[in-house]
Amino acid sequence: MAVSKPKLVVVGNGMVGHHFIEQLCSLGLNKTFDVHVFGEEPRPAYDRVQLSKYFETGSADLLMLTSAQDYQDWGITLHLNTPITAIDIAAKTVTSAQGDHYSYTRLVLATGSFPFVPPIQGNDRAQCLVYRTIEDLEAIQAAAQNSQVGVVVGGGLLGLEAANAMMQLGVKTHVVEFAPQLMPVQLNDKAGELLCSKIEQLGVSVHTSKATTAIIDGETAMHRMTFNDESCLETDMIVFSAGIRPQDSLARVSNICIGERGGIEIDDYCLTSAPDVYAIGECALWQQKIFGLVAPGYQMARVVASHIASLGSNTVSQSFTGADMSTKLKLLGVDVAAIGASRGFDNAQFVELSDNQAGIYKKLWLDETGKYLKGAVLIGDNSDYSRLLDSYLSQDEIEGSAVELLLAGAENEADLKDTSIVCSCHQVTKGDIVEAVTAGNHKMAEIKSCTRAASGCGGCAPLVQKIIDQTLQAAGLDFNAGICAHFDHDRQALYHLCQVEGINDFNTLITLHGKPSASGHAYGCDICKPAAASIFASLQNHYVLDQNLGHVQLQDTNDAYLGNIQKDGTYSIVPRVAGGEITPTKLIAMGQIAQEYDLYTKITGGQRIDMFGATLSQLPEIWKKLIDAGFETGHAYGKSLRTVKSCVGSTWCRYGVQDAVGFAIDLENRYKGLRSPHKLKFAVSGCTRECAEAQSKDIGIIATDKGWNLYVAGNGGMRPRHGDLFATDLSTQDLYKYIDRILMFYVKTADKLQRTSIWMDSLEGGLAYLQSVVIDDALGINSILEQQMDHIAATYQCEWKTSLEQPAFLARFNEFVNPSDAPEADTSAYQRIREQRFPSIKDAGAGTIAIKDITDDAAQLAVEELA
Amino acid sequence: MNWINVCNEASMPKGTGIAAWVAGRAVAIFNLGDDGLFALDNVDPASGVSLLARGLICEIDGELCVASPLYKQHYRLDNGRCIENADLVVKPFDIKTEQGNVFVLAQS
Questions:
Q1: pLDDT tens digits for range A292-326
Q2: What is the dihedral angle through the alpha carbons of A231, A237, A242, A246, rounded to the nearest 10 degrees?
Q3: Within a 13 Å sphere around the CA of A474, how many CA atoms are in the beta-carbon half?
Q4: What torsion do the CA atoms of A403, A409, A411, A412 make, to the nearest 10 degrees?
């Protein structure tokens, strides 16, 4: 009989509610509790901080923090579209709007906040909207389509975000603020003025000191807003963003204590007045304070997870001790930051810097003695934010005069102490990052996954990278340096050198740009040689085993013999089966060849057929037969395009909306033979059912009824990653253009043996940057990238066909230089299982061979060869 | 002890290896041009498979090596010692050329 687990109910699936679930899972509590999460919105948690990004791509996908699948994987029941309407704190149950009852052992309220709409006559007219959810954004987008002019009511942080969104929708934007300046909560008057002039330069009209008195019918536009100073403004749409109020109505009706001005009262463990009920995030009131930022909400989430974990164990729970409300952000492209008492206070000393030419304003507030930083405001340049925040949080005495804090230039990671918080979203300190780097995580992507730093808003990413570099340098490790002992350049630099100087052979490359060895050798190693071979192939696309250019000596294990080596030294053979489509005649031909050579055959994950057990000398014979039967090489041995997997698509499938197979074949034929930093896998699905699993591929394409959606940088394997939605509803022509550019940009900039998934994570600026390069041509290189891809496609060759045309070269495939002296191959080394041939060597394989002290790169290479 | 003529110089590719059958054993021979000829037992001691001739020539810390195609251990061409694992050693063979022919000294 199953023992029923205690029940944990979470009401609210916003950023804080979701962060709580993540904390719960990281503590393993999803195993000990039966967890139910209720969200009233139709989708799981998304990033509300960067809502205006929705308009950059027209899709909510980029904002998503999680998926229903994640919750399923964690064993957590997620109820979407399910508002909770009542809590019975005595019976310990909650009731949903649908009338269902759920009991709880512990309850967490993460209901967030709602936008405050000022009580103005006419505030409920058509196209009078708020800015909080994705549904709100959709309504704003719809309204913008028939609007010339729009007004945002509220000149605070959120209001300016909303103004940014409105501008992006092509609406002439006004901001109306009740106070005499913008961002009155955070900024002093001068800072507000500078921000105002900067925003007006961008074309936003700012009206301060205006209280709206009514909204009535307009004459030139839909509405007329009248103000207390008798002025008026005509507008087609209005977005209210005049602050937030805690969403405490559920707690209120359930007799949980509420503060006088709203907010669910909590103690230092975030417990409310009701037994076993917690509240976290913007709905919670701690010491009469509401925290309207995400970082304090995350802190509360951690406190509650730790408190629940501490019950019934010996651990001591964390407690909530307040949170710093300092913030740094870009509003309409303008850097803005506020730290501590950013508006000053009585008797404060101050240092002020006002640079009218550069458009920079900074002010530091110090205590009466002038020795301690109490607050700061920065406009136009917040590059010294981290250093100032550190000085503020630590309350260390300022050395020297305070003005030096402002003149020290951009922040120096060396100034930070180990206890300094670098990532405020996830409370990661510099010490945490240094420790992770020292433990062997040298890449940005690794640091992101093990410390979570830079995985929240991402604002600290450049600083995190600096700390990584500095730590590596301090430890005497090569940082960001050469690919191996023979070069000081990374792959991108080598690619650039070869391209600019037209270098197409290793000797020239190592002589001109490599490091001479003491003995004067110029052999390179198994890291730089294959990397160079790949670069030459990406640029020139010559035959990879060219002897005159010496390319044959550079190729790694598999490329060197155009086959995939197996544990017994034989090879496997994979002909191209584009899109996974094969005629019965070709299938029979392949079967006959496999039968003749007694090859073990297996269907691969990429919808083709792998034939194992060919000896070195059999490779040319077998390939001759395959080519005669109409096959060509499948490049399974190369770091190049492997397959384009497809579902059956609209030609047969009753759900398909596009011809997935036909398109997959065309794609495979365009990109086959492209040598890249690592292997590439594509897939095309003919409808949103996604049978081809395209989101797990480097390039994934899903048909829509309007065209194709393009996903980039997905991965299966050891580190699964869903592809990022890159663009939607593309025409076939645009899709090819984008893929050309993305792939060539990857080839140009990726590190050696770096899959697109890791590349994307390490790309500064990530997906948005890649989109700006590929879609907006931010670097002005798109035509070059396309030309390069055209060159690759035009110079494609089947490497086996080329090899077979050079009989002298085929001597390379002889087992022995003196074959007449050698005995026949030993066939006793095989056994038969399920009617097929298998190697009988038992004691070989990566699992049993101790690979010790091999460099990371070599071990990675070894693992990659297996894949 | 006798020298076995395995091939002529012209049939040895430069900068890569090739296997030769020498008195009952497979021997990997490497032609490094000005840096000379090297010969090692073709069997990779880490995997027990006869394939070292198919490895990539490398220079690791100034030593010329061959990287095993399977698990990438590096063996020194001059003495067969594994750079990463002192327990692994490949037997080196003497090799020479005479009048355009390549000879490997057979071992019992």
A1: 888 899 999 999 999 999 887 777 888 998 888 88
A2: 150
A3: 12
A4: -110
Among residues A310, A333, A349, which one ends one of the domains? Answer: A310
Number of domains comprising chain A: 7
pLDDT digits (tens, 9 = 90+) for A412-430: 555 677 877 787 777 788 8
Contact A305, A22 (CB under 8 A): no
Secondary structure (3-state) at A403:
helix
From residue A37, give the alpha-carbon distance in Å to each of A70, A82, A357: 13, 9, 52
Same domain, A436 and A573: no
State the number of CA atoms in the 13 A half-sphere of A297 facing the CB. Answer: 29
Point out the domain boundary residue: A201, A226, A242.
A242
Nearest 5°: CA angle at A788, between A785 and A794? 140
User: Any idea what the CATH number is for the domain that residue A136 is in?
Assistant: 3.50.50.60
pTM: 0.56
**Residue A828 counted as domain residue:** yes
Cβ contact A841–B48 (<8 Å): yes
Domains of chain B: 3-105 (2.102.10.10)
Domain that holds residue A358: 324-410
Chain B stretch 86-105, residues whose beta carbon is closer than 8 A to a beta carbon of chain A: none
A2 lies in a domain? Answer: no
DSSP tag of A108: E
Both structure tokens of A750: 């990726």
Question: What is the C-alpha to C-alpha distance for residues A553 and A151, in angstroms, rounded to an integer?
Answer: 67
Q: In this structure, are A787 and A653 located in the same domain?
A: yes
**A537 and A571 both lie in a single domain:** no
> B-contacting residues of A 544-563, CB under 8 Å?
547, 550, 552-557, 560-561
Closest in A523, A555, A818 to B21, CB measured:
A818
Whether residue A695 is found in the same domain as residue A759 = yes
Q: How far apart are CA A465 and CA B90, in angstroms?
A: 43
**Which value does ipTM take for this structure?**
0.96
